[in-house]
Amino acid sequence: MAQIKVRLPDVVFDAIEASALALGRSREEIVQRALERYLEDFGDLAGSARRFRDPDD
User: Fold this and answer.
1) For residue 41, pLDDT beyond 80
2) What is the pTM of this model?
3) Is the dihedral of CA 3, 9, 13, 16 positive or negative?
C-alpha cells in the first residue's frame, strides 16, 4: 500500500481527530474513507459534466 504525506490546517486535523474518536476509528481510516468518497463523487461529477457537454448525448 502506498503512503502519502500531507500537511493539514490544524482545524482539519482536529476535525479528523474528533471524528476518529467519535467513531472509534483511526485517523488513517477516516482520511482514507473521506478521500475514497471524494474521488467517487468527483468521478460521478466529471462523468455528468462530460455528458452535459456532449452535443450527441
Assistant:
1) yes
2) 0.71
3) negative
